[in-house]
Hints:
Elements: E1 13-17, E2 23-24, E3 30-31, E4 34-41, E5 51-55, E6 82-83, E7 88-89, E8 94-98, H1 130-144, E9 149-155, H2 157-168, E10 173-179, H3 187-201, H4 219-233, H5 236-242, H6 262-275, H7 280-292, E11 313-319, H8 327-339, E12 343-349, H9 357-360, H10 362-380
Parallel strand pairs: 5-8, 5-9, 6-7, 9-10, 10-11, 11-12
Antiparallel strand pairs: 1-4, 2-3, 4-8
Amino acid sequence: MTTPTDIDLVSPQTLAFAQEEPFVLESGATLRPVTLAYETYGRLNADRSNAILILHALSGSAHAAGRHAPDDPRPGWWDDCIGPGKAFDTDRFFVICSNVLGSCYGSSGPADIDPATGAPYGLRFPVVTIGDMVRAQTHLLDHLGIDRLLCAAGGSMGGMQVLEWAAHFPHRLRAAIPLATTARHSPMLIAFSEVGRQAIYADPNWNNGEYYGNGRKPDAGLAVARMVGHITYLSDASMQQKFGRRLQAREQYGYEFQTEFAVESYLKYNGNNFTRRFDANSYLYITKAMDYFDLSQPTGSLAAAFTGATAVKFLVVSFTSDWLYPSYHSKELVRALHAVGADVTYLDIESTWGHDAFLLEVDTMTRLLSGFLDRLAEEEGIAVP
Length: 385
């Protein structure tokens, strides 16, 4: 096996489509044109059979690995697993990651200019779904000349997109790797989404989504939304380990309403930092897409959603301390897949890292993903590019 190394500098790319015929969304609304930001790593082999699509979570981007410039402080969000000799080995596979519709990292979203008005869309941007995001990605595959993916993989909301691919485009992928995810958002998940949205609505600077260009963004509301999110990404055990009841930069209580505990400082830092890289309206749109996600509809049967996916190999992974998407979500999915005779490997991994374990358990995920992809590539006779 190749010694793991980092990817060289990568260049962001964009695809524009629906310039003539509009892109029709599940709501019936339309977008024209549509832009998708994406990055690729590795090389496509001669028969175009080694492509892997990586799908990101709520606040992710197309920048999954490598750096855009030598002085970039941090690489892409899944750099630990994408590169030569890593889990998604770019010496063997052509890895693609695209930014979802509704986001703020280069794909069409509420901060973009509405061609009908010449001003940013704001809330005039139509509500999108996970299904819309995936159908847009099919245009990207067409553009790249890829008929069928070797695999689609992603965690959290990325896992929802993986399942959408398997349910509605099973003929276009050989394998699916949904990590720490669900096939339908539960009432608790919808509740957390709504708390975050309400924090944004309550910020006077939100101004019903009309804040672009006026110098006053709803940063306070977005920061609170992110703080709530960060709590759900951790676990009780990881918070005890990381923070305990430790005070931040003081030795005793101040008996005042200031940031005193280390965990408070952590949440405040991450909330404020998030406002410098994400758009509040995009947060509204993407969380709403997640809340609408329910593959059991319209039939009421989750198994029925996968009747066409019996030729897809699944690797389903959950984590014991993930209370955002507890293991029962994955077990429900596995039962549905078994009911239709799908080929499923399921692991419920012991971890104290909570929901973020799929990003933080690097050694475990590398062994697991590498083993699955090695077997898949051998079965499919994938040629090295």
